Each structure stands twice: as structure tokens, then as C-alpha cells.
Amino acid sequence: MNLIEYIHHWLSKPDLKTPVSLIISSLNELKKETALSNRGKKSLTVALTSANRLEELLSHKDTKQTGIYSPADDIREKETILLVEANTDRREFFRENLSVFYGVIHVDTGNKALELARETNPDIIIADAFMPGMSGYELCRILKSAIETSHIPVILLSALNEKENIIFGLEAGANDYIVKPFDFDILKARIRNILQSREQLRKTVFSPEPIEETSYTNDLDVEFLDRAIGIIEKELDNSEFSINEFCGLLAMSRTSVYNKLKSLTNQAPNDFIRIIRLNRAKDFLMSGKYTVSEVSYRVGFTDPKYFSTSFKKQFGISPSKINNSV
Known about the structure:
By secondary structure, the protein is an alpha/beta fold. It contains 15 helices and five strands. The protein has a five-stranded parallel sheet, sandwiched between helices. Helix 7 (163-171) links the parallel strand 4 and strand 5 (176-179). Helix 1 runs parallel beside helix 3 (38-59), helix 2 runs antiparallel to helix 3 (38-59) and helix 5 (110-120) runs parallel beside helix 6 (136-144). The radius of gyration is 23 Å and the shape is elongated. The chain starts with a helix and ends with a helix.
């Protein structure tokens, strides 16, 4: 069986009965074959890229199609709030009023919230500071100390208004601390401000300026982005660099990397890698030292024509015209 037949055999399985991860594993094994021609290697690289992208899409598709359904599936088109409140009446009041604007997942304990935060990657968490079992303070501390969840903003609600309590909540990593009783419009405004700030931060990630620690409330987020960008730059000219390798070097699961990058940059891993590569390509082109073809290979593109198409889509200008635009 030649390379094309091999790829066709695996990728044409009806209903994807063969797990995509198995396809990727098989293709990675095939990469080790020394008898492959240059054309075969290029075809294999294209197949691996497609398979990785397919796995990423399948892992985040509508779970109603698979029969594995969670209440969160109905609300992912909205920004999602995970509400943690032990009191049934207050929890229902918050849910009813917030669900007008956001998708709301609600639980009554910190332990349940911790599990759901890891599973659903909510856009923000609102938690009562004092609950039976795990308190909101402890929940916040655990979330903010784990790389998989440190990016999730947390608002703590508490009846204690002493300075020491507020400082304790903020030192636990809370993005905001609201003292009860409060006007519900204030809570809505605080939520909106936090989410808008997160959106602004996403836009700064790909700017040429260094990521400022002060822009993020959690140093783990800065360290993650610095490390992710550093890994991509080290593998910049490696056209066979895969998402599996990327996640392995980050020492995180594919789902965790996807959730983290999506929250911090609004980009999936493949798109994140592509944008970093294209940004570096723009730097190379602006230096005037390289041709378009040379740059395409320097940033991991095996096809200069595809590189030019991707570059123009990203920046709105052909790479051959970069020097004329500056």
C-alpha cells in the first residue's frame, strides 16, 4: 500500500469509526520511515495537519450529536457564567436574572464547581465566599493556582465587608470582591467590565509589544503564553510540528491547551501557531533580507503559494508587497 492509499484508507472510514487519535498515531509512525520520497513526506505533512485539525473540531463539536449531553451545551453560544451558591432561593434569583444575558450553569457546592470549571471552561465564575464544605475562597485559590483554570475570572460575594476579608479574597486570586447586600446592577456591571477587559487582552497577545504581567491578574497566564510562543518560535521552520508535540512540550492535554488558548487569545491551537508564524514572517519580510519563498520555509510552510494566501488573509496584503507598504 503506497502513502496515498494508506492515508485514504484511514481518513475515508465511514462515520469516523476509527478514532482520529489512532489515525494521527499511525501517521506519526509513518513519519519515521526513511524510504519516503520528498513528495511522500509533503503529502504526509498535509495529512497530519488535516487529521490534527479534524480531531480538534471533533473534540469540541456539539455533544448532542454523540449522545453525551451536558446542560452547558445549550448555552455555549453565549458567554458562560458558572454560579456557585448554596442557598436555593438566592441561586435561583441569580440564575433567573443573569440568564437573560449569559448562559448560566449553577451548582450548590464548591466541589461541584471545581469539577465543572475544569470540564466546561466557563467565561467567569461567581461564587459565595462562605459555603458548606469548600468555601469560595478555597475554590478560588485552587482554580487560580492550576495552569488549566488560572485564566478563569472569579467574583466572590460575601457579607463580610472588613478590609481584612476583602484583602483575603483578593489574595486568593479573586478578580473582584462584592459585599452583600448589593444592587444587582452593580454585579452586572462588574461582570461586563471583567469580560470586556478579557476581550481587550485577547487583542494584545499578537501585538509586537511584550506581554505585560500587569495586564493579567495571574502570572501563570503570562508564563503560559510566553512558553507557548517560545515553543512555536523554536519550531518555527519545522513544517511537521504537530499539535500533539505542542501539547506535549507544554505538558498539558489537548483539551486543556485548547481551553486555555481559546480563553486567553480566542484562537484554537492550530490558528494560534499559524498566527505566530505569520507574524514572524512579516518581520522577516520587512527586514528585506529574504524572498517570499525563503520566508515561507523559514516559518514552516512547505508551499509558498499557500503561505502567500494565508499571509494575505491574515494581514490584507500580499507578502510580495510588504516592503512597498512601509
